[in-house]
Amino acid sequence: MPNSTELRSWGARGTAGVSFAATLEFAEVSVHLGGRVVLDQFSLRLEPGEIVCLLGESGSGKSTALRVAAGIQPVHAGALLINGQTVSSPGATTSPDRRGIGLMFQDFALFPHLTVLQNVLFGLRRLGRTAALAQARSALHRVGLGAREADYPHMLSGGQQQRLALARSVAPRPAVLLLDEPFSSLDARLRETVREETLAVLRETHATSLVVTHDPEEAMVLGDRVALLRQGRIAQIGTAAEIYRHPVDLNAARFFSPLSEIESIVVNGRALTPLGPVATPGLADGTAVTIAIRPTGGADLSTSGPGTPGRLVAKRDAIGIDICEVKVNGIEAPLVLRQPARADITVGQDVFITLNEEHVLVFGRD
């Protein structure tokens, strides 16, 4: 549930200045750092006004890709283009201030010796004083800091510092906006609201936005598309629904949620499991497969049949949701299921499990 106090403190939606969005394209970009290939012929194109989230584990190359886009990291092969113009290539890098980009860093990178207003004005030095003040104050009002322009960053809360960083990045109305883990320093109480309002600001500015995150839920909420990085390349890209429902492989599926996994063999187009047969379209008989069941939606738990018998061995309350662990004969680890909270189900009770086959994932094993 969004924090109501935080939500009310933002300015009116629809008041952020509009940018002239540009295309952003990585064309087979490679970057080597410390003798290691960090980006490996990395290719990605963002259309004007599109929000794309780069998602991946530490070391996957996502932050390096952002630094390449910003002009902070040179490339060793390939090219980066903004609106079709090459701004990074081997031996040639256009400086960040000539790219028409906005940057929002993980630690906000605010200037502690400058006031709130001066922080935002810093990126508007090319404008005349009157125009710069108008754009800076407009951005501050949009993020709800119009009354704090004479304060210094240390006088702001963490959420307010995040909003100041956002105002500073959008005030110049950049064609491309780059955000590096923008919500990671916020506590859970604020994160949802700040994320929601930041997304609204991005939509209003219409800037082409590249957001780096390690949080799958955050990527799926924010991005028009999500790009999953693995060892410097895109392992999968698509809408949130596409990559969640149809992950390219088992590792991709594991990245988006915990899984209960059952190993089996395809026989007559189906894999037999202790929970019943599962269809295996496109896989030949005799293929070794892993059946992956997500905690949410993959199976239902009930106190009476039909279904496969099991025993509830653990139950945790997660505010309206029960996280249940069910031991089923023939399955080594307990199944982990997220269900609407039920007071009538207790640890040690016999229960029944029914698969929702449309939400069960099947992967061939090498």
From TrEMBL:
CDD domains: ABC_Carb_Solutes_like. One of its GO terms (molecular function) is ATP binding. Residues 24-256 form the ABC transporter domain. Keywords: ATP-binding, Cell membrane, Ion transport, Iron, Iron transport, Membrane, Nucleotide-binding, Transport. The keyword Lipid biosynthesis does not apply. The keyword Glycoprotein does not apply. Belongs to the ABC transporter superfamily. This is ABC transporter ATP-binding protein.
